[in-house]
Amino acid sequence: MSGTLILVRHGQSEWNLKNLFTGWRDVGLSERGHEEARAAGQRIKAKGLKPDIAFTSALKRAQVTSDHILDVLGLAGLQAIRDQALNERDYGDLSGLNKDDARKKWGEEQVHIWRRSYDVQPPGGESLKDTGARVWPYYIREIQPHVLRGETVLVSAHGNSLRALLMVLDGLTGEEIVKVEIATGVPIVYRLNADSTVASKEILEG
């Protein structure tokens, strides 16, 4: 067995709370989001896991989540690498809109297709497939080598950038991955074999 990969979707954001499409808009965590991030740190700590390196997106909701987790683990000075390759899916023209208002404007079915299809882009934005096209190379080039060296790696990112990773790690199809929900602030722990295949997966729920 090789190393450990810990994936965490950021805690609830202010716009999650308001039911708005967020995407690349740089919004902060809600009070609940801060609590979820600290709770994620406690669950990781309870498992005896100590990251050797952390990766996060270019967006502060993921960065602050990572900071809270590392603080709880007593690792506030740990190197955290930020890259927009791990950013949330870009919702384009939907960004900043209330999801209910979007349904009124374009119709329930069209908004559902934009949100839950694998390869259909919202106007001016990215599909989940597009998101994967930047997440997968970054993971293989920058993150996976640390895990294969036997390190424990924390990745604090977003619902759709993490969906793209889960698709590969769990061997899911485009149809299967869009049905997967990733809860805010709940760590997913993978242990990888030396050949990069998954040895085990555990979701650290409360």
TrEMBL record:
Pathway field: Carbohydrate degradation; glycolysis; pyruvate from D-glyceraldehyde 3-phosphate: step 3/5
Residues the UniProt record annotates as site (Transition state stabilizer): H158
Keyword annotations of the record: Gluconeogenesis, Glycolysis, Isomerase
Highest taxon listed in the record's lineage: Bacteria
Pfam families: His_Phos_1
Catalytic activity: (2R)-2-phosphoglycerate = (2R)-3-phosphoglycerate
Binding site residues for substrate: 9-16, 22-23, 61, 88-91, 99, 115-116, 159-160
Any one Gene Ontology molecular-function term assigned to this protein's record: phosphoglycerate mutase activity
Matching InterPro entries: His_Pase_superF_clade-1 (IPR013078), His_PPase_superfam (IPR029033), PG/BPGM_mutase_AS (IPR001345), Phosphogly_mut1 (IPR005952)
Active site residues of this protein: H10, E88
GO biological process, any: glycolytic process
Assigned EC number: 5.4.2.11
Main function: Catalyzes the interconversion of 2-phosphoglycerate and 3-phosphoglycerate.
Stated family: Belongs to the phosphoglycerate mutase family. BPG-dependent PGAM subfamily.
PANTHER family on file: PHOSPHOGLYCERATE MUTASE
Record NCBIfam families: pgm_1, PRK01295.1
Description of how the protein assembles with itself and partners: Homodimer.
Protein name according to UniProt: 2,3-bisphosphoglycerate-dependent phosphoglycerate mutase
